[in-house]
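Record type: ASSEMBLY
Status: queued
Input:
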Amino acid sequence: MIRLAKEYFADQRDDDLKQLGQAFHRSDVPGHVTGKTNYFADRSFPGMLHLKMVRSPHHHARIRSIDTSEAEKHPGVARVLTHKDVPHNVYTILILIQIGPEDEQVLAADKVRWKGEAVVAVLADSERAAQEAAAKVKVDYEVLPAVLDMEAALKPGAPIVNEYHGQNYYRYDSGACRKVRFGDVEKGFAEADHILEQTYRSSPIEQAPAETTGCIVVPEGNDRFTCYTNTQALFFSLDNTSIILQMPGHKLRFVGGTVGGGFGGKVDVTTEPIAILASKLTGRPVSFIYSREEEMQVSSPRAAETIVIKDGVMNDGRIVARYVKGYTDAGAYSRHSPYGAQKGAAHYPGPYTIENVWADTYCVYTNRTPSSAMRGFGVTIADFALEVQMDKLARLIGMDPLEFRFINAYRDGDMKAHRQPTEGAALIECMQEASKAANWPVAEKYLRMSSYKGG
Amino acid sequence: MAKKVPVQVTLNGEERAEFVESGATLLNALRGRFGDTSPKGGCHQGTCGACSVIIDGELKLSCLTLAEACDGAEIVTTAGLATNSAMHPLQRAFAEGFAAQCGFCTPGMIMAAKALLDQKPDPTREDVIEALSGNICRCTGYEPIIQAVLAAAAASPHKAA
Amino acid sequence: MTLSVRTCPTVDEASAALAAGRARYLGGGTLVVRNASEGDLSFDTLVRSTDPALSRIAVAGGEASLGAGVTMAAITRHPGLAAIAKAARAVGGPAIRNMATVGGNLFAAAPYGDFAVALMALGATVEAGGKALGIDDFLQVRDDIRTMVTGVRFPLPAAGAFRFVKVSRIKPKGVSVLSIAAVIETDAGGAVCSARVALGCMADRPIRARAAEAALVGATLTEAGVAKAVAAVSEGIRPITDPIASAWYRGEVLPVHFRRLLLA
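Status: finished
Output:
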């Protein structure tokens, strides 16, 4: 049940809301329930080719040679693509916003850096023929030592995962990590009644959308291509495709918007460039749709994270110092992880006002599946760690965990550690409502608090 | 090119015949040949239920059924439930109850729910949960779907088709 | 090459077609079509049979006989098979149960094949290529069987003697963490006089828990009485590791669920 609590912050808005609080039908729902909604794969075109990717069976290996001759001769095969066919084979998604270097291969050339990396694309009349031909592609690998966790990756002398970076972490303009420095954290710890240091770890999480990642490309006959895709980031895909294929954007028409579940898992640029290239080189429509196994094993998950939090807390409930080291496992390539790790740095104080904060966040490369976006990446796992830490701190000083949060909650006007003044906080009011809804009473003084400046 | 074989079915009440690739799944045949894209391919391995259809009165997974094995069969899909422009009670309940978000699992959910209501017009909540146990939804958390099926059952005493 | 399908009106013709090369028998499709879609290139012909004998269920004289094409759903509906229906109901969701067959379940690699675990506890006989084979022996050689499985038969357990549990991490059901089936008969005094216990996911196929069976005979089904059997149930297991659970986890929880099943 939705209730609009208009009694809060009435002075901060013009109270002329007409749509909020009303139930409206979503415009796409009639299509969903009648089966008429058009997802990208709900199309078939005469002469359509099926693309099947030959992928690395190794976490880390040098490619000695690639032999596609038998695959090319297989009945039904139209074309076999290797790195040599890709005009600009090394890319990185966020180059669009000047976050480089380009560090990822569209099709692997000299090395594979994770198990599942794309090496050779086979195009055939049917899925079966593509599978059969893919089995005939011969890749000669020299297996290299793999780095499979962040601790190992950051040890001196660890094998270098990604030569485009030169070291196993992303180098920000601020150095080896993103940094937040606020107040004097050592002074805070010196004053604290208690200090609690804890380490939190998470595993990669697959978004597992119902519809797997993919696209269908149709050549329009004038060197222009229409790409039906379920990307969640249409213009990322279009612009990166334009770079990778060295084709001006006006030759690429992307049709998207209807996505059968994404949860962040469809913001990477993994199917469109190679499918459009295949369509360009064969002159035929091309379908490249991940199998369920590829969706689970190859598409990028939420990053694994390790978060070390050290807090100084007073017996009266105030947190006076917080020191955080955060590590984000990007896997073998950057994709969106440098951004995710950076978000963490700003987020580690949580929705609390702490006078002394020190945060370092590292984006680490390993020979694991590249990680990327998933629902609040960079902050969701941080919140898990922070709120477990809050409960532990409350227990440490014998305080009710909800009351402990009231004491530390940020108010409007408080300066956050990353130098953004707090506005529109509303945290205290939410906790007051939550206290009632969850039947978790707090002392009267907390019910009199407010998020207003000085409240 | 793959060998083509003729397949004749009654699809949503209409007699249809198409040549399909030998070895093709019913899912691919329905979507690619018969032009009914309401069943979705979420896994092609019998795990997600998005391809559920009703074949000769029984709920089945079209991704694991060969088109050739359906020659002569009567097939009902979500695309065939609406009559004229009026939605089926299940479709209406799903729409009104916000039981669909991305919509990809919805046709399969509706088929599984229809198979239940065809057998048991007045199901319990447990019956509904059991009936939907082969269908995965990643958006809704299932509760609105369960409620929609119960609402459809309550709104119209369901008669076996 | 492309996948071709041969539909045979009789078991004999299907058997001959199966012997003719890179062929696989197509029952409900839940294993074979899945494999084909996932790129299994080890077969290029699917053989199916419309022989009505394959979907026949006969229950008479204390024995049940099921054609290999009998579905899980048909078992759950049959009044004469009520005692074992829960094992069939444990397989998949409703759509899978309308497709998955008794014959196919015998070939399902762990974590699938929960009904075969039940058949093992029931001491079933498998009919393949006109010969009858005990299920324990059949499961050992199933990958090399080149003839067609046509059916199974088993003695119907005494009332209350059949016990079955499938443990999964998703409610109401999902893929097996493990399954346990048992046929346990007690005498008038409550002592166990015979026990057959089969385990799923404790190897790549169903296995017998023979040490637990031996420990059960003569015991009573009480906390103290079953202790030895519970301690012995893990003997000889080699649980699988897959995305559902690790071998370690499966091994740890097996005695817990076995104990609960015995005391239920």
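Annotation: Chain C has eleven helices and twelve strands.
Annotation: The first strand of chain C starts at residue 4 and ends at 8.
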